[in-house]
Specification:
The protein is mainly alpha-helical. Helices cover 77% and strands 0% of the residues. The chain has a domain at 65-304. The longest helix has 32 residues, at 2-33.
Length: 347
């Protein structure tokens, strides 16, 4: 039994690595097809992502929101929920953080910045708890709810930023947040901020909550088998709502980091599908907070290096999107293979 557990853990660690290698190998075939040297192209990708402190800072800056959205999806998954609504929760959290940032004046930084961060978390948590409540009380599937609420969040924040809270410029955005609510830049002129430390702290907190607390045990028990959990005295409905609220809070932190550390105002449609990319990051990170951190850095590196590869070679940056899709395909294929094997064992 112990040997089998070790084998499963080893497979859990190796599978993402194999998925990345296979995706890069297939990507090399595309690079050859356009007449470029795959080794030279990948060298450019690596150097532009990690070759200097400035490049590394840019990679980490692009990875930071993915850490949050990846953890949001992973946390929900651990509780047996598939949160497709991180994008909407991100937007609500972002607007809430921006509102706190530009509304309150005269506050010291020590109060204003934490208040804006908490505002973003609460906004995301509120938006995430809606599908959690509908799932727990009415049995409505969270995938349908979260997808629909993505559009509601998107158009609601569009209206807020162009209507009652428009900043007065020709750009569809709110007023700037006060300097006391902004995250500190770690390595100017890059846009990496202290939001990175916030993401790492969030990952540690998620790990401690899920694996070191009674509440985390209940959440994971519900995720593994809600009927058995309920039979064991665990309140499934309460934990479902709680899991979606925490998942939403993590997604809200992604929007908060983008507003307080990058844009300094809420801008309509500012997210480059960060919420949806969080699904891919969570899958590659095996829904573990530390795995999510590594997966987010990989995706951040691919985004950072793709622009240079596009500029310096004939390889289009869209190739990186293909590689990302292939990585997820191979990770998902592993889940599918496991399910097929389990079905055969049960037959």
């Amino acid at each position: 039994m112990q040997n089998r557990t070790r084998a499963i853990r080893w497979q859990e660690m190796v599978t993402p690595l194999v998925a990345v290698i296979l995706a890069l190998a297939i990507g090399a075939g595309f690079i050859l097809f356009v007449g470029e040297n795959p080794l030279a192209a990948y060298k450019i990708l690596f150097v532009e992502s990690f070759g200097s402190l400035r490049n590394l800072a840019t990679t980490l800056q692009r990875a930071t929101p993915l850490m949050f959205t990846g953890m949001a999806v992973a946390f929900g998954y651990r509780a047996g929920l598939f949160n497709i609504g991180a994008e909407g929760q991100l937007y609500i959290g972002a607007f809430a953080a921006a509102w706190v940032g530009f509304t309150f004046t005269g506050l010291p930084r020590l109060i204003h910045l934490p208040l804006a961060i908490v505002g973003g978390m609460l906004g995301g948590a509120l938006w995430g708890s809606i599908p959690g409540y509908l799932k727990a009380k009415l049995g409505v599937h969270e995938v349908i709810n979260t997808i629909m609420l993505n559009f509601v969040a998107l158009y609601l924040t569009d209206w807020l930023a162009t209507g009652p809270f428009h900043g007065g410029s020709w750009v569809p955005e709110t007023a700037r947040i006060k300097a006391t609510a902004a995250l500190t830049r770690l390595y100017p002129p890059t846009r990496l901020s202290t939001g990175l430390f916030l993401a790492l702290l969030a990952a540690l907190a998620v790990y401690l909550v899920l694996w070191k607390t009674k509440q985390g045990y209940e959440l994971r028990a519900v995720g593994l088998n809600p009927h058995a959990a309920e039979y064991g005295g665990i309140n499934v409905a309460k934990n479902t709502i709680l899991a979606m609220a925490i998942s939403g809070a993590l997604a809200g932190l992604a929007g908060t980091e983008q507003i307080l550390g990058l844009h300094n105002r809420f801008i309509v449609r500012f997210s480059a599908d960060l919420g949806f990319m969080g699904i891919a990051v969570a899958l590659l990170g095996k829904n573990h907070p530390f795995g999510v951190i590594l997966a987010a850095i990989l995706f951040g590196a691919l985004q950072t290096g793709s622009a240079a590869m596009d500029r310096l070679t004939a390889v289009p940056r869209e190739l990186i999107t293909i590689i990302q899709a292939l990585i997820i395909f191979f990770v998902a294929a592993e889940y599918l293979i496991r399910r097929i094997l389990r079905m055969k064992e049960g037959a």
